[in-house]
Amino acid sequence: DPIEMVCWLPALCRKKDVPYCIIKGKGRLGMLVHKKSASCVALTTVRQEDKAELDKLADNFKAQFNDNAEVRRRWGGGIMGIKSQHVMQRREKAIQIEQAKKLGLQ
Question: I need a surface site. Which of 10, 11, 57, 71 has the fewest CB within 10 A?
Fold first, then answer.
């Protein structure tokens, strides 16, 4: 929420090799910036004494989100709607009929 951020921002971060992480709840993210809620946060400057801790966090984020192929496969849950299921069934049936014709069974 907003949906535009959720959809394209992780893909852009992966493409540009920028570490990112997904936080559950806009309220938690808002606490970081002392606001009621926030949809996304980008860090632009870091104090020198916090640099090592940020680098460690960035490495963890890259391992958990950027480089994790399982996260990309699970998006959407893989559950199709009823119309899409019917389209796929018709498509599979047409493929089976076509293969049967090639084999000369019909």
Answer: 11
